[in-house]
């Protein structure tokens, strides 16, 4: 049995807590490795190493820090196939999807190479008589991130790349379900010239998370995961005086107007709803056709496409549409929610409950499901399923469709398919959701914009990557300086004002 490690002070380090978590091959259901679960003492050691290394890194010219990231990008491109294969082996997603996971993280690293420009402060000459005023963006110190299983490459890079570019050290606590790729990324950064201790990877569970939340040296925490855990981390981290940003659950709606191209819509929904087995926070899990005629045409187009989806392990080739879900518990939860939809009266148009892949009977595969006539009071509508399940909720008008998206507690992403510019513009302006697609099914912004939802999909006031990341990982210091032209006598006892 392979024993995985932490990555501390520039090298792989065996765990000392005596506690381990099994890492499965989702395609076979077999345990393929064990990862150590850190205790508070191990986290303390990682933080101490980061705190010792960070001042020199922060004092390094921003352009030199950016050169390390440049080299890191080159090394990731060199090892793309190796990273994708390791990711697929532990997560279960297809190789093209795994490579996309790495690529979307790499794009944020490329954006962070512009740190010298993004870290420039402001300057005002002669703000008052003989007075100049300027601001500086300075590193926080030691920062941390707690990342999810569904994007084990992308989301860690969304956090540590801007943190490191700003001059911080970073403690990464990745998901214990698929921990190998974060270690590989840390090794590539080390090869690129990152000093020891600036990126520490500490594997762990709730014990390590709580140690991060309570550690007085750690200045900020980023998190992506479920909403209940996001609320917990945000409240406890903020109570301890830390800067915290947490991204939670989602239930993303696609509004389908009667004038939309139904073939285009069906193709978009199949990719957005079933890609990565639905284990994406930006997956479309609810289609909202406007009018029964629109709904009938949409379901007629969708059903054969969903039935034709190819499910299998990543080793079966690039024509596999999606692989297994990450754990047996995830599979059980998905199928339990499917049963609840049937019991509540929704019509199961495509039934994947009996899906069984020959030779992989113990794997965590879930067949594709398509529901019609779902209503807003059903669990399959209200809860985030995080599996290959698409629900069709029929709306009788545009206003009814808009209301569904606006009334849901989650507000991560949404989309509308229409050929009418007025409708699209109205939807984009009115919907209370953070990321909106117009004839785009998964509206994930590119690296130079910011990623973030609204409502119970986010806790905190700044988004991920883009300009917000450089605000989150720095503090602004403002300096007011006066260089008198002559000797001044006596004190000034009134508040300074402009003359």
UniProtKB/TrEMBL annotation:
CDD domains per the UniProt record, alphabetical: ALDH_F6_MMSDH (cd07085)
Matching Gene3D superfamilies: Aldehyde Dehydrogenase, Chain A, domain 1, Aldehyde Dehydrogenase, Chain A, domain 2
EC class name: oxidoreductase
Enzyme Commission number: 1.2.1.27
Residue ranges of every copy of the Aldehyde dehydrogenase domain listed in the record: 17-479
Pfam families: Aldedh
Keywords: NAD, Oxidoreductase
Protein known as: methylmalonate-semialdehyde dehydrogenase (CoA acylating)
């Amino acid at each position: 049995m392979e024993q995985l490690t932490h990555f501390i002070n520039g090298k792989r380090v065996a765990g000392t807590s005596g506690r381990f978590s099994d890492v499965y091959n989702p395609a076979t259901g077999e345990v393929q490795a064990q990862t150590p679960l850190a205790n508070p003492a191990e986290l303390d050691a990682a933080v101490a190493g980061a705190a010792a290394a960070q001042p020199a890194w922060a004092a390094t010219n921003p352009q030199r820090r950016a050169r390390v990231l440049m080299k890191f990008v080159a090394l990731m491109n060199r090892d793309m196939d190796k990273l994708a294969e390791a990711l697929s082996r532990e997560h279960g997603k297809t190789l093209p999807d795994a490579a996309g996971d790495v690529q979307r993280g790499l794009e944020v690293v490329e954006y962070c190479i512009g740190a010298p420009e993004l870290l420039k402060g402001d300057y005002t000459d002669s703000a008052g008589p003989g007075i100049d005023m300027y601001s500086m963006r300075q590193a926080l110190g030691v920062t941390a991130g707690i990342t999810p299983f569904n994007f084990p490459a992308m989301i860690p890079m969304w956090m540590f790349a801007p943190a490191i570019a700003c001059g911080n050290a970073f403690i990464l606590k990745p998901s214990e379900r698929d921990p190998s790729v974060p270690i590989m990324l840390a090794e590539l950064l080390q090869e690129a010239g990152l000093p020891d201790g600036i990126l520490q990877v500490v594997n762990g569970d709730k014990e390590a998370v709580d140690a991060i939340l309570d550690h007085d040296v750690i200045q900020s925490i980023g998190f992506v995961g479920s909403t209940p855990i996001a609320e917990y981390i945000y409240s406890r981290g903020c109570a301890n005086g830390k800067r915290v940003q947490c991204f939670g659950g989602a239930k993303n709606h696609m509004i389908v107007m009667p004038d939309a191209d139904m073939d285009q819509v069906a193709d978009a929904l199949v990719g957005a709803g079933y890609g990565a087995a639905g284990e994406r926070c930006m997956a479309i899990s609810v289609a909202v056709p406007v009018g029964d005629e629109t709904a009938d045409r949409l379901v007629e187009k969708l059903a054969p496409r969903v039935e034709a989806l190819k499910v299998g392990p990543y080793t079966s080739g690039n024509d596999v549409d999606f692989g297994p879900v990450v754990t047996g518990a995830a599979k059980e939860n998905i199928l339990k929610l499917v049963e609840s939809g049937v019991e509540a009266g929704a019509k199961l148009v495509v039934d994947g409950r009996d899906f069984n892949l020959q030779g992989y009977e113990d794997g965590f595969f879930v067949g594709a499901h398509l529901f019609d006539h779902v209503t807003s009071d059903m669990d399959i509508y209200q809860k985030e399923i995080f599996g290959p399940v698409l629900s069709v909720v029929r709306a009788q008008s545009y206003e009814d469709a808009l209301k569904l998206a606006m009334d849901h507690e989650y507000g991560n992403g949404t989309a509308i398919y229409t050929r009418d510019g007025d409708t699209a513009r109205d939807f984009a302006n009115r919907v209370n959701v953070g990321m909106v697609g117009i004839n785009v099914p998964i509206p994930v912004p590119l690296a130079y914009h910011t990623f973030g939802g609204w409502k119970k999909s986010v806790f905190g006031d700044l988004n991920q990557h883009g300009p917000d990341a450089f605000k989150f990982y720095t503090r602004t210091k403002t300096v007011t300086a006066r260089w008198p032209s002559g000797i001044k006598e006596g004190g000034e006892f009134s508040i300074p004002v402009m003359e």
